[in-house]
Amino acid sequence: MNRRQKRILLFVVLAVVLLAAAVVIVLGMKKAFTYKEPVIENAGQSVHAEPTPARTAEPSYTLEKPVNILLIGIDNHTGSSETDRGNADGIMYATINPDTKELIFTSFMRDTRVRIENGYDKLTYVYHTGGIEHLKEIMEQNFEVPIDYYAVFGYADVAEVVEAVGGIELDLTVDEIYFMQGKIKDISYTMGQDYRDNELSVDQAGRVKLNGVQAAAYTRIRPAEGQYDAGRTERGREVISAVLSKAFRLNTSDLLKFAGVFYDKLDTNIPDSLFLQLGMNASEIRGYRQISDRIPIDGSYESGNTGSGYYVVPDMDVNKQHLQQSLFEGKH
Questions:
Q1: Which of 4, 84, 107, 313 has the most beta carbons within 10 angstroms of its beta carbon?
Q2: pLDDT number for residue 51
Q3: At a CB cut-off of 8 Å and minimum separation 6, what does 27 contact?
Q4: What is the CATH number of domain 67-328?
């Protein structure tokens, strides 16, 4: 059985489990019991007591501790290919914290300078030169945060995931739409689409429903509003939040279709057991408070050309403290 078939089977099983749970609730939460007839010794005689019910063991799907997932968006459409790895233009740390009831998305600016084995480098190049395991190691060493799992995807994957939820709605400025046009052409070409089918006009500024290509283009622009990479990290968080909000409202059939697309597009080490656990807790997670954050935080870094390239140089102590408080203590 291949990876895609395993994913589909997993979610079919999940759907059956959820349906069975609903039936149990309707029937008054009846439990399955096993019975034994214990023998009571009484004055040399064996006396059969009334059967004592013993509950059968049930697996626990409770989220007991935070789950931390590193999301990597690559600046090409080939994902994490070893022959054309690309740069990590989107680096996001997703934390599902059942203790604080929060879902936290923390972006890391691609040009952030971090310490590596033989000096310093940008986060985006750490992935390019060493791959996901190297990036995980460097991030854990520099920022002192645990990375449990990872997921890597290209911008064409973003487009297909957005299409799987039927598009998303976002507020766009004239400046953003202007800079999106070139990216829309590039991504349309990559995906074999006519860019004219995906064009936007600056006259549409405001609340706009975006298809997959348009949403992917939105995550790729930098100069809009003069924010550059800080703005791009925020746009990436907006797209992910919008996709999740849309997915939470899908019916069971559409949710299974979305899951099939989503998991088929990811290069990830997340085990099937965690996917099932998250699925069983989806209704609770949907009610978690969503937090959008960025590292380095405002006022905690300097940026500019150092002679060997453009860098964002953070105050590590300030940002490490902020991460610990935000991710695990509920302080934002």
A1: 107
A2: 52
A3: none
A4: 3.40.630.190
Closest CA to 92 of 112, 66, 121: 112
Residue spans in the chain of domains classed CATH 3.40.630.190: 67-328
Q: Are residues 105 and 237 in contact, defined by beta-carbon separation less than 8 angstroms?
A: yes
Cβ 103 vs Cβ 310: under 8 Å: no
pTM over 0.85: no
For 114-140, the DSSP string reads: EEETTEEEEHHHHHHHHHHHHHHHHHH
Contacts of 16 (CB under 8 A, 6+ apart): none
Read off the tokens for 77: 């459409």
E strand or H helix at 253, and its extent? Answer: helix 252-265
Question: What average pLDDT does the chain have?
Answer: 80
Amino acid identity of residue 287, one-letter, is G
Residues near 4 by Cβ (< 8 Å), separated by ≥ 6?
260, 263, 264
Least confident of 30-44, 145-159, 230-244, 307-321: 30-44
pLDDT tens-place string over residues 278-314? 878 878 888 999 999 999 999 999 988 877 778 899 9
